Amino acid sequence: MVVMNRELVDKIKVIILPIVNQMGYELVDVEFLYQGALVLRIYIDKDKGISVGDCEQVSRRVSDILDAENFVDKRYCLEVSSPGLDRRLNTIQDFKRFCGQVVTLQTLTPIDGRSNYKGKIENVSEEKVYIKVDGKDYEIDISNVAKANLVPIL
Fold it and tell me: For residue 62, which of 78, 75, 85 has the smallest C-alpha distance?
């Protein structure tokens, strides 16, 4: 899997965000990947969860907009999906929303020789995430977070 043009992804987000929000959904993330073919993957969510019908609705609307804007000059497959139980946390608002829940988190730069964490989000400020791992508290700058995902509660 190869991640494609970040600038293009940002442009797509700007175009589709108001449409997705107007339809009553949260735009969680957008990925443009090469997986044997080009794939534009859009993750949406809402309070009561996402159905296949929700994905179909958003897919039709977004496809029409992207075709009209002609942003992508190559053939690609559009996928609209739920973020899943192991939802990725991308923004400080995501961390605040899921404060109190268990996450896996990877840092760009190690803290005390450690880059991988699995623990409970204890608190969140505007620039830091506070996570408790195995009884120890870690203070992680949001700018140092490479990747973070919720740990599903089964």
Answer: 78
**Model pLDDT for residues 105-130, shown as the tens digit of each residue:** 999 999 989 999 999 999 999 999 99
pLDDT tens, residue by residue, 44-84? 999 888 999 999 999 999 999 888 877 677 788 999 999 99
CA separation for the pair 124, 109 (Å, rounded)? 19
| Residues contacting residue 30 through CB under 8 Å, at least 6 positions apart | 9, 12, 13, 16, 40, 41, 42, 43
Q: Where are the domains of the chain?
A: 2-81, 92-150
CATH topology of domain 92-150: SH3 type barrels. (2.30.30)
Q: What is the CATH number of domain 2-81?
A: 3.30.300.70
